[in-house]
Queue: 2 jobs
Job 1
Amino acid sequence: MRSGRRKAAKDVKQEEEVSKEVAEAPAPAPASAPAAAPLPPKEEPPPTAGGGGRERDRGRKRAREAEESAPPVICPIALVAGHPSAGAGFNDGHPTAAQFRGPMGIALAPSGHLLVCDSDNRRLRRLVPLVTQTGPPAPPAAPGDENRAGLRGGGDDGVAVVPGAFAKVGTLAGSSRPGTRDGLGRDAEFLDPCGVVVTPAGDAFVIDAAAHTVRRVSAAGEVRTIAGGGKPGFADGAGGAAAFSSPGGIALGPDGTLFIADTGNHRIRAMSQEGAVRTFCGTGTPATETRSGIGCPTLPHPLRYGSSQAR
């Protein structure tokens, strides 16, 4: 009996000591949130074949960033003449009833007329701009601003041309007869009119590729051959002494010089508006490699254009 009481008292004492140790022990630190995993290192794109891959990739990245930050470009397209279901043919009149056959070159005249080389119909077609009454008299446009305003004032009567809108399609020069005859309007003939440009004075210069000539057409429709002898060849000179071989495009320089793509001769020719032709660029040999830039080996002379010079 006595030994049992001593054992019970000993057990109680041990429990009290354990409780005291637990109470005096420091409290454990509160559990913290697990640390975030470190981000993987940024990898450089592998170099591409040919070396300089990283530079090119960085350049592409900058180009993409510039493209993404650029404002959207909206280019509306509207049918101004012809009809999708009309097919090829020839018909003057209202723009939606007009027909063309193989239209090629196109140019806008200062008057607002649109000239079209209707190649397979052998005609130079003219789209007449839509004219509207704007109400009060409009101030005259400043020189060189004729096509920049939404409506171009036509004088004290307040008449204006609506850009991009046309009232009818007509024939300025040419007929169904193939030929090279000069003349007025439908009395003139073309073989393959394919390129056109209009000067500020309103004269049109037309490339007649199959005739190997350049024709001048006045605003009244008077056609005159100003360069080329009617046969393929190559020669600098004036008027009929000059020779082309299937010329194609034509462009007007700021000083009034005409530049002609002499396709068959593999050259660019320069021509005055009076018909004096010279070779501007090209050797006549088809290129076997691409060369670009002013001063390329194909230039036969130092290039002087505007205020810039290259030798």
Note: The first strand starts at residue 103 and ends at 108.
Job 2
Amino acid sequence: MAQNAMLLDSQFEQDFAVYEAWQEKWIRPVTKAVFNHSFGEAEHLLDAARTEIASGRLSSNLRAALVYPLELAYCRVYWHDVRGGFTQRQYEELIDRLSIPSQSSIAEYARRLHLVAIRCICSDKAYEQPSKAELEELLAPLPDKLSIRAWQEVALWAFRNNELEVLERAFEVFLINPPSLLGQARWQRVNLMYQLLSGKATRRDVYESLILLEIRPQLSEFRRNFWPKCVELGLVDNELEELLEQKSQQIMSGQSDPARERRTKSFLGT
């Protein structure tokens, strides 16, 4: 995939700092509530975030940019599987809105980032798959260090669609720019996908991924997308099956504690 970068001027840098802080304050609590299936709380938080944007305390560029994380948060809250998912019309209307270019650098950055994320997140249930060319065009202007959120979703899309070249690119992005939040778990996730798809995975890769499972979405994704491939490749034994069951019980009962972060042998190549 192309590795260009959009122009990052001083105004973008100022806007980006506020943009990130705003998401930390308003969007992350919504996501956490959805993870815990506390949808009433998530709706309340989402309404509060919208009210904050409408207050006029932010610049017009930032208000335009923050529409996009709000769109994704809305999808997480109202399109969740336990709430019935989404219809073709809802999906197409959302993609149409997100396909209109934005005028400012910060808003265009946010638009591309979230359009990629939503296209990939919805790809297993959507009515059309994003193409490699489409994702490449959307990602091309974005600096890797600022597009980790999108690459996280692109990696899963690549894994599901046997796009090893794209997955290898995601692997490189995470290797060079490890995310700060849940960093070990996030790049171990990409590492496992890359090792599985490239045929290099070992039992240790599976084990290291299992011990880092801490929340419901991680567990669900692992069971649905990764575990069958691990079984297919003969990487699973009784101990790993017991560990998965143990982690499942801990997570579903709310007893799981954050695992100690560690680096994996296969990811570092040592």
Note: DSSP finds 13 helices and no strands in the chain.
